[in-house]
């Protein structure tokens, strides 16, 4: 088989760049940059370009900004909007509103057929006459977009819309999603009907990222591409900045209540920041943990251990913890009477309302040129008239933002207080919805983000990875233990080989094997190639000559529930990047799996791929003389392998 495979490769030009380049060259010697000790003995064998932090890798999503504009023309694109951004209480000129409208305008200009889905609750409806009905909301959107928006009453889905009406009107608005139980339940049937007819989904409702909804999570199972809109993309970039410690010192001002529920997020902050300043009800819990006298009614008994743990981590890291030195308090007998009380003094007869002037002076003294995060209310009482401390803190942070401080405001308490005095906070990063940020800081995966297609977060330094990055590239999708590519790299040194594999442990093992064999024409990356193939391979300076997919796990579940490696996004990426006369090699020991892959490639390649020669009813010989690990196992037990080769025309 080996000699036959090599003859086929040299004669037909499989991945080796033509017969003139097919002769085996001398083995490329590794430079000192790639000695085995640098991978085996150094912890950086988990090369950051190969293996990324799986706990945060879901944050790197495909965005509309980077999606090929030409692929939007004529496609039905469903956009999930945040209605709060579009309505009057945020004002008509906010950047968030402009970004949300830009998503719609961008799609419209790209000649996509746009469907808008959104939701609004009774509170939003009572405060905004624009959403009294779907007709009034459509009229309001039309005025914002300067394009006619057609409302569709009843259950969302194109099945209830007359297609001929779309010839004259480019944008459709579906009914309020909160009117349907399937939305909140993330019902599979509702998601499928909602997505019916749509091929691309764009999420621009970042404030719902922490929820599992049919319109943000379930719908992604039925669209071939799921992307972040302009507003969503910008908010996600800002969210990631919260855990970015490049700018130091980094101080977090943390307020509000419910210490126990916020404890995981506080542990995250104490591990990131150079100081924590506790305000609001949380400060009493810390003061108690530090041994200060605090009235029992202000203590969460079930959170004492959590407070002690956070104090211990702060001591271990030598990170200071601050708390209010004085408080504005209300007299319990005379609600109109207020005064400043020392926080360590007796509070009998007084109810804390807000931080005092001495505390504000302390905050002001520690934040020059700092990166500052303010999350949670400074107030101990909800009465608006006793928010003097919060208002003054807003003024302090506003001044700091103009003095080159990086200021991040999280929640209505922080954002509204600053805006009330200044009228604008354009120098600050703002998150109105604190829940999304708290969940992120707790280390929890945000479903609305995780549901979107992923992109690879790094640009691979090809000249470092390969000895000669201009050689033809062979990509094995689902490279597994890498045995196939190791043997290919030995036999055909006039090509570079790249393995894409989801299992990070297997990739680490392959990288260790590379060090032992000192290969410079072979590399492995831990990633889901289904959505990241284009972002990885498009930056390669040479040509993509061959893509192989061998023996993917068969899944015989119902079509709407199955996970498949070969999807439209992958096929289009391969077809676009493959050089002319480049090949796609498909192989499986399950014939139906091979037929499914073949059908997908031929259907979604837009005529760019054809069957290369006669595949002998899918029983062609292995053209390379190199068998994959599973292929050897199948052949050893006497079972057949099914293969086909496609070529780009």
Automatic annotation (TrEMBL):
GO terms for molecular function: ATP binding; phosphoglycerate kinase activity; tRNA (guanine(46)-N7)-methyltransferase activity. Its EC number is 2.7.2.3. It catalyses: guanosine(46) in tRNA + S-adenosyl-L-methionine = N(7)-methylguanosine(46) in tRNA + S-adenosyl-L-homocysteine; (2R)-3-phosphoglycerate + ATP = (2R)-3-phospho-glyceroyl phosphate + ADP. Its cofactor is Mg(2+). Gene3D superfamilies: Phosphoglycerate kinase, N-terminal domain, Vaccinia Virus protein VP39. The keyword ATP-binding applies. It comes from the Eukaryota. Keywords: ATP-binding, Kinase, Magnesium, Methyltransferase, Nucleotide-binding, S-adenosyl-L-methionine, Transferase, tRNA processing. InterPro entries: Phosphoglycerate_kinase (IPR001576), Phosphoglycerate_kinase_N (IPR015824), Phosphoglycerate_kinase_sf (IPR036043), SAM-dependent_MTases_sf (IPR029063), tRNA_(Gua-N-7)_MeTrfase_Trmb (IPR003358). Monomer. Belongs to the phosphoglycerate kinase family. This is Phosphoglycerate kinase. It comes from Urochloa decumbens.
